[in-house]
Amino acid sequence: MFAKSMIELGQKRSTIREIFEYGKRRAAEVGAENIYDFSIGNPSVPAPDSVREAVIDVLDTNGPVGSHSYTSAQGDADVRKAMADDLNRRFGTHFHADNFYMTVGAAAALSACFKALAEPEDEFIAIAPFFPEYRCFVEKGAGAKLVVVDADTSAFQIDFDKLSAAINAHTKAVIINSPNNPSGTIYSEETIQRLAELLTRKSKEFAHPIFLISDEPYRELVYGGLELPFVTKYYNNTFVCYSYSKSLSLPGERIGYILVPDEMDNAKEAYAAVCGAGRSLGYVNAPSLFQRVAAKCAGQTSDISIYEKSGNMLYEGLIKLGFTCVKPQGAFYLFPQSLEPDANAFCERAKKYDLLLVPGDDFGCPGHVRISYCVPTERIEKALPKFAELAAEYKR
Ligand code: PLP
User: pLDDT value at position 12?
Assistant: First the structure.
């Protein structure tokens, strides 16, 4: 009577949500102050004051009707112009309003992109470790196939031999996510250049464009003075999926966009396909109030220095305890090796100390665990002795 695949999907929570729900139950038993919940990526740093001011300003300026009324399906034209102006100012690009389609966060941006691109038998490539929801969006949402390329676990850049071998005549797009959830690393300029060269070569070989989908909700969360290469400058056939969930700490407001550059092959058709995908999914008119708030606050961030401090503290603490981990460069995740080959067993053992960690298996990278450190810094200080007790079990 109902779609079987949807029932299955609806009945099964993601591993992250499963652990997060466990944490809530456990907090009710022993008190939230005794739980070290590193499971979910909910920003812990407050949204900047400018968000509150922008909300009030939008309400005052547009009134109780205009603030909440429908915009164009692809988003308000002035809002989309503000998105273009912000990127042009920061990255020296030449975008305009009609390169943008406003969405309900990065999740809807990705889903609409996959839908806009997918034809029967198409394959989308994710490079491990990757955000597990890609599988759901690609396979259940767009009816295409997700192909996973194994991780380069030494630095969490890209294993180009494996990526090259995975691309075939059915490949429609490669998905990248930098700064990365869950590894916390950033793709260097060299990695992006090599990727652009590979995709250009493969597009010629298979006589059709192989697109890049750049999932960028953590774009501004970059540490240690590093600069993130802006991907459309390296590869024309790039769709950018962006969200204000992390940069402005607004995950519940559900606001983001898809950027379709003019330089893309058949750019007008590509943009039309995005609009069609949005329409077919019912994703028209991203939330009106927060479209305008995002326009006013574009380019700002919440105080991300807090994440940098927390990440460094946790990284250094774990390294001292003997963990192997690539140093975080962005986002708010650490992805150390598990202290036993089975990361699920390790995460179960960590629960004994009320440390809630996520096994790397769903991210396509077994033997690792994700630690989401977007928690107050003092929680990390308190958690380190728990990690020490956990690590000690493996030294006995
Ligand atoms: N992509 C990645 C890599 C993420 O980590 C997330 C959320 O955590 C999303 C997409 C979805 O973001 P949004 O909240 O904007 O839908």
Answer: 86
Residue nearest ligand 1's atom 8 by CA:
41
Q: Mean pLDDT over residues 34-58, rounded?
A: 96
The rounded Å distance from CA 204 to ligand 1 centre is: 32
Residue nearest atom 12 in ligand 1 by C-alpha distance: 106
Please check whether residue 63 lies inside any domain of the structure: no
**Residue 60 C-alpha to ligand 1 middle, in angstroms?**
31
Q: What is the CATH number of the domain that holds 308?
A: 3.90.1150.10
Q: Are 305 and 43 in contact (CB under 8 A)?
A: no
Q: How far apart are CA 75 and CA 61, in angstroms?
A: 18
Local structure of residue 368 (DSSP, 8 states): B
Task: In whole angstroms, give the CA distance from residue 142 to residue 198.
Answer: 25
Pocket residue to mutate for ligand 1, from 215, 239, 249, most atoms within 8 A of Cβ: 215
Whether residue 58 is contained in a domain is answered as no
Q: Are residues 315 and 184 in the same domain?
A: no
Q: Is residue 11 part of a domain?
A: yes
Domain-terminating residue out of 281, 297, 313: 297
In the DSSP assignment, the letter for residue 35 is -
Mutation test of ligand 1: which of 131, 248, 258 has the most ligand atoms closer than 8 Å to its C-beta?
Answer: 131
Q: Are residues 20 and 148 in the same domain?
A: no
Tell me: the pLDDT tens digits for 208-237? 999 999 999 999 999 999 999 999 999 999
For residue 55, being part of any structural domain is answered with no
Same-domain pairing of 201 and 319? no
pLDDT digits (tens, 9 = 90+) for 100-135: 999 999 999 999 999 999 999 999 999 999 999 999
What are 2-24's pLDDT values in tens digits? Answer: 999 999 999 988 889 899 999 99
What domain range includes position 253?
68-297
Indicate whether 236 and 337 sit together in one domain: no
> Please, which residues have CB within 8 angstroms of residue 215's CB and are 6 or more apart in sequence?
106, 110, 131, 175, 176, 177, 241
The model carries a pTM of 0.97
Sheet of 369-372, strands arranged across: 333-334, 369-372, 358-359
Q: Which atom of ligand 1 is nearest to the CA of 107?
A: 16
Ligand 1 contacts (CB < 6 A) are 41, 105-107, 131, 177, 181, 215, 217, 243, 245, 251, 256
